[in-house]
Amino acid sequence: MRIRIPPALAIVCAVGALLRFSTLGVQSLWYDEAITAQLLRMDLGGLLRAIPDSESSPPLYYVLAWCWTHVFGTGEVGMRSLSALLGTATIAAVWALGRRLGGKRAALIAAALVAFNPLLVWFSQEARAYALLALLATVTALLWLRTLAQPKARYAAAWGLAAALTLATHYYAIFLVGPMALWLLVRLPGTRVRVAALAPVAVALLVLAPLALGQRANDNASFIGESSLLTRTVQVPKQLLVGYDAPGETVLAVLSGIALVIAIGGVIRILRSPAPSDSAPLAAVTAAALVLPLLAALAGEDHLITRNLLAAAPLGGALAGAGLAAAARAPTRPWLGWSAVTAGCVLGLVTVVGVNSDAASQRDDWRAAAAALGVGPPGRIVLAPGTGLIALGYYVDGLKPAPAGPRPVSEIDYLDLPERRPGALAAPHPAQAPPPIPGFAIAARTDGETFAVLRLVSPAAQSIDPATLTRGLDGGPAAVLITP
Asked: What interhelical angle do 130-149 and 76-116 show, nearest 10?
């Protein structure tokens, strides 16, 4: 059977792919991606053994990425290209979902909104599991609607498999898959069809439960709770619309919010229509995927952060496409719908371009920091933030913790990067000068947009015990590292 791809969809996918692939190497890897690189350079058995201690998510993405990087390498572009491919595929999947909701026009609008969405572009350029989560969530939603419409065992089994894979990608998928499973349990006729749908999900939950409990005990995601739940909750809608940081983000968020209001009005128009529509069940489970994590956080299981809610983003895009298509068909003021479509795409493109041209809106720039450090004398000591061993180590071969005991040192470099909080970026302004070190004087300072490097040198090597160097350039605890 030949699959015919509509020319308009092909164009939207091509533009979306261009946005994702053409700038894969613009930004440095940040700490989490450096951990991914560290995992992917292990053998497969070592990777699987390391995940319980190093990660707070299931292993599916890392297994796929391990296979991918054995072909394309663990460089920035090689690792991220898998996410870019998955992100591009999500555009086509959202098109199919939008078509179920409102026909060809809704499908194309939904695909365009997702192609230009800054947050989905961002995670399509990150070597982490989120692009896979967005794609599988979309496929799961599509198969769920198909199963509701045609409750046959083969469709139910397909949904169950997709749902299980989504759970194996990210634990927060339970807030989407769980409501879908309950809905099917109530609506599906007959035990056979129910078992076909729910058995793969049950198996996935049983297999993943011990890993999830072990990772929860490790508390690798404890940083999330360092900012208030209210702050993180308020950030979610803004970040889903225009991403984390961008030049002029306030104006972009307000204008995007207006377009979203028009889309919501269109969805309400669909829901009020007497004609049957898949929009109501999809809107219900999408809302559940956003609200249930908040309720869990209020109950004490607080891991609420925008990226953990990414499964809802493409589904929201499909609903927005259907809503804007309905607004464009309205008997009065149809221009509002078309204006919102144009605004959604243009504002997304402006945001993506703005992020790629503004270093302060990008990920931690460990690559530029490593370049500023340059090549130093043998045994040089580097004092960096606590994440420096892994993140800086990706760019500086042979970097390792400084061994205990005095050693001859002729150069000490202080490196400061901003302290990030969910949804916030603090500029790297050192709180104080480093304490004086006998025999050393400041030789140079490099201030990047998101980092600072201070170089201290001594004309002759001094005996230095790394254990005495405990404070970084910002006055806080530092990782004491040594270069080859």
From this structure: 50
